[in-house]
Amino acid sequence: xxxxxxxxxxxxxxxxxxxxxxxxxxxxxxxxxxxxxxEEQALPPEIRANxxxxxxxxxxMAVQFxxxxxxxxxxxxxxxxxxxxxxxxxxIASGLxxxxxxxxxxxxxxxxxGVPAGVWAALAxxxxxxRLLMSFAVAGISVPVFVVAxxxxxxxxxxxxxxxxxxxxxxxxxxxxxxxxxxxxxxxxYLARLTRGxxxxxxxxxxxxxxxxxxxxxxxxxxxxxxxxxLLPVVSYLGPATAAVLAGSLVVETIxxxxxxxxxxxxxxxxxxxxxxxxMVIVYAALMIVLNLLADLVYAWLDPRIRRGGRS
Amino acid sequence: xxLLEIRALTVDFSxxxxxxxxxxxxxxxxxxxxxxxxxxxxxxxxQLLHACTGLLSAxxxxxxxxxxxxxxxxxDGDRAAAVRGRGIGFVFQDASGSLxxxxxxxxxxxxxAAAAHGLARGAALVESRRMLxxxxxxxxxxxxxxYPHELSGGMRQRVAIALALVARPRLLFxxxxxxxxxxxxxxxILALLAELxxxxxxxxxxxxxxxxxxxxxADRIAVMYAGRIVETSSAADFFGGPxxxxxxxxxxxxxxxxxxx
Amino acid sequence: xxxxxxxxxxxxxxxxxxAMTGLVVLSWLVIAAxxxxxxxxxxxxxxxxxxxxxxxxxxxxxxxxxxRLGRDLLVRTLHGLRVSLVIALAATLVxxxxxxxxxxxxxxxxxxxxxxxxxxxxxxYALPQVFFVIILTVVFGRGPxxxxxxxxxxxxxxxxxxxxxxxxxxxxxxxxxxxVVGGAGTLRIVLRHIVPNLLGPVIVYATLTxxxxxxxxxxxxxxxxxxxxxxxxxxxxxxxxxxEMETAPWMLAVPAGCLVxxxxxxxFLGDGLRDALDPRDRR
Lengths: 312, 261, 283
What we know:
Helix content of chain C: over 70%
Number of strands of chain B: 10
Oligomer: heterotrimer
Shape of chain C: elongated
Structural class of chain B: alpha/beta
Structural class of chain C: mainly alpha
Strand content of chain C: under 5%
Strand order of the largest sheet of chain B: 6-7-8-3-9-10
Radius of gyration of chain C: 22 Å
Largest sheet of chain C: none
Number of strands of chain C: 0
Helix content of chain B: 25-40%
Distance between the termini of chain C: 25 Å
């Protein structure tokens, strides 16, 4: 099928997933025992009734859902139940740029470091670069973000005093170094291992040996024949990598005091702020869907067999 | 001086169970001569070809002597690399497996032409198209822009042959060149190989288990069993009456039209 | 077939040094979690006013020091270890039971039932797990039970896929056809013929799932949305430690080290089991 048809099909396929996520989030939060105002100190019943009416909580479920979806289509995620002065949309809008910045920076850093590391390890198979890099990789995968972050903050921020550990002064990019690096580390580790394994497998492929047999220099064989094929699984991994980075950003923003969506989400979860949590989850899910889609598109573009369709 | 001279070639593979794939093989190929190595799978035929051009896998070791046009190839990685493509061409068994899936046919050919003859891109593409026409691939200009998966099995094998020849080697290695193909296509490919060797003045070292292929192409035959050459003779002598019992067994196993065995 | 396969696998596992080390250390950790607190003089919520925030090996009886409130760190870490292990094992068990049942039935029945069941799995698979677990904690309150259900609710998906693949393959084998011909009912066949042969991949996957669950639970506890104070979990101990790391780095190092060690052991063991039981998967 043509490229356009392919893209359209993928886009259309993503919509039901998003719809399910929205519906499920809504159902779950509305089905909760008790309501969002239960934790307030004893509210007189009339005031509580007024509050609930104001937030539309006295309507039947279907109506509430309909109004919520209509609101979504207009970019309105509803009011925050706990931050009375802000709507969820405002909180999302303020936090999104921060989270996107560190998230994308982390992904780019991970690709820039992880893939070459994996290639080096594969080419130096069995020798010390391979062993060293793979030991780091195993550590990187096994040590969780919330353990690495405090240690890095301790080492670089407090003992060595090289980098700031908290806060976000817009424009001061050194604030971002520790958070982005922390976020990127597990992905670097995984990409290094993935690239190494993939490249080793591709180097055993018959067409790589054939390319060498036809007299092509080793570098050409590696760069033009082996590497492009070896990178396909890496592109596939970008979807799960995004999920990992988004989840990790919750921790990183909390520890390093960054005013991103993640920190708002955690606050919302601690406060049992339904609309905030719901809205954030929907945005995160949408981000993941978009990035998964991009990864799929890049994969299809790279693999001519999908792009052009084939015979056998 | 012989074109290819193999003396006491031994190939060992290390691993959980070490294997000696080739056990002291002597073989020669003269210019413009076609030699066939016949044997069952597992006899070490492919490893012999790989060892000559330095293409063994990482756990393989080759000992002995392999001389191409007087130069020793074993143990000299640079010289082996220089000989690949330009001195010795290679056609692999599974053509679909031997073509890089994500690169266009034209690019794969032009790349070799450029490297071997120092051509610029435009000239290299012209040479590529010429090569495709040489192997009788219909509609050559269109094929240059296509990917391997867009061609049929027979067409892919023709492309594989073109890739092996575009650097103008003097000797062609062919490892089971027709085994993966339909029967009808096999005959065409064999005819093509014979024609090309004749026209380009190439020698041929062919490895196969198919005696029909041998009959079509070979001047001389070497029978290989368990890593050793057990018999060498001219084609006429071989099909007339082989000396070794194993060769006799091979010939007897070929079904004939003359009624039940 | 069975004893030969298991015998070989066991022998290979014994030779895998990383896996064996993981197994041994893991056993120590489990024993420590179960019985350790009995050997320490202090209880996990006991406050020692005289010894607040002391480093390891300095105060009497507090081998690994105390936290900001004077609670013994060793005993709290062991309790945290206990909690993390119990939740992880329980959640994995839940995932296992649901996943194996779902996958075995889907793989055995094939056809439209299979397609439908696996479609359900696909849909759930596309949801971002961490975020939905967070929603569930918001909705149903924070605590061990919610965590268990929330994590288990997502953990069975991959198991179901693996099991279904195996079941599909097994269904074609002769002994199953013989059972079908012999008139055995579906449930009987699934239970007595298919499930025992799934044991290999299931064991491997379960061993590799446990560390993932531990990490998710610790992640949430770290953020404060998982296990709540004063109940100790490795996650919230690490969070406390992170807050005090400038002045009392041992508060971070001890639970963090324990968590990393735990995860490493399970991963090594799981990798070893996979190499031993699933030869096709070898790198």
